[in-house]
Design brief:
The protein has ten helices and 17 strands.
Length: about 350
């Protein structure tokens, strides 16, 4: 271990499920050290995501049935990705970009100095195919100056982009790439994307366009031009009647991160044999399903959390070849995490809000 590394660090500790008062910025948190098979990353930047807020407020609890804006369950024991009680205090932060500054036993010291990004959804050690280990939930994440990581989950990235720009990719873009991968989106197919101005939605627009699909983006009218610039062929207002705007059986794939009251109409616009892929439900997780629609139209439903092994390596290759571009709405110093999450909750931005920890 490099003796020049500080013994303490700045970090945001989440002390329990609840409001912004659960976030404590401190500068005396013990710095972690890499165990066997791990690397120590000095965090250059970490983006804000829905999952950071949903985890803090307890929205993942099965006792919660409303939109993320309605709040969560502060005293729930099942309010995590895994459904198991979280261990507090916890350092959240589902996105990490930084440099390896130390390695544990069994890891080549040649990796020191590499700039890396880290998957949010990682295969659980020793787990089955769909067992995941979530950064900033089941282990400490990026809202700190340093974080340890299994070597296999620290992906070297060669890019001229800044740490802030690279930090905008891992969570949102890997989620979007996984949705498209699981739905087997093909060139010339029509893909309808909900919540298209958010991190996952705007990433899905770029990635679907990259593979040659025709993209229809659902977004507020004030953001329509930004989505067209990203590659959408058409935009539809989030309050529009989808059947009236698009017609029945007009799209091949629906990529959904919204859910809520509009959900039945998403199945109406799917063609027979169409695919519905979901990885979020910010407008509400409880929806009404007519099973006859599912089986009479031969639809396929795909819940998408655990990521295919090809997803993150593919994402790194897209970044390195310049095939996708970062969308950064605003940056904040790590100590201003509350202001950053408050801005995030307004949903008035396109792209990512990124936190930068102290670099000394």
């Amino acid at each position: 271990m490099d003796s020049k590394l500080p013994q303490t660090m700045a970090a945001v500790l989440t002390t329990g499920h609840g409001g912004y008062d659960m976030l404590q910025y401190r500068t005396d948190v013990p710095r972690p050290g890499p165990k066997a098979g791990e690397v120590l990353i000095r965090v250059g930047a970490a983006a804000v995501n829905n999952t950071d807020i949903n985890t803090r407020i307890g929205w993942y609890s099965k006792s919660v049935g409303g939109a993320t804006s309605d709040g969560g369950a502060e005293n729930a024991d099942d309010a995590s990705w895994s459904g198991e009680p979280l261990k507090f205090p916890l350092i959240q932060g589902a996105d990490v970009c930084g440099r390896i500054v130390a390695v544990g036993e069994g890891v080549s010291p040649d990796r020191i100095g590499e700039r890396v990004i880290v998957p949010t959804m990682q295969p659980a050690p020793g787990g089955e195919k769909f067992d995941v280990f979530t950064l900033g939930s089941e282990c400490n994440g990026g809202f700190a100056q340093f974080v340890t990581m299994r070597e296999s989950q620290a992906y070297l990235v060669n890019s001229t982009l800044s740490d802030v720009e690279l930090a905008s990719f891992p969570c949102a873009y890997s989620t979007a790439e996984n949705l498209l991968h699981r739905a087997d989106v093909q060139a010339a197919e029509t893909v309808f994307i909900t919540g298209a101005s958010g991190g996952v939605g705007s990433a899905a627009v770029q990635l679907a366009r990259r593979c040659g699909a025709v993209v229809i983006a659902q977004v507020g009218a004030e953001k329509a031009s930004a989505l067209l610039a990203l590659g959408a062929s058409k935009t539809v207002d989030r309050n529009a009647d989808l059947l009236e705007e698009l017609g029945a059986e007009s799209v091949d794939v629906v990529v959904d991160v919204v859910g809520g009251g509009q959900w039945p109409s998403l199945l109406s616009i799917l063609r027979r044999g169409g695919r519905y892929a979901v990885s979020g439900a910010i407008a509400g997780p409880i929806v009404s399903l007519d099973l006859r629609t599912l089986y009479l139209k031969d639809l396929t439903f795909l819940g998408c959390t655990a990521q295919h092994p090809d997803v993150f390596p593919n994402l790194v290759s897209y970044i390195e070849r310049g095939e996708i571009r970062p969308l950064v709405a605003k940056t904040f110093p790590l100590k201003d995490i509350v202001a950053a999450q408050q801005l995030f909750q307004t949903k008035n931005h396109v792209g990512k809000i990124v936190l930068v920890p102290p670099q000394d």
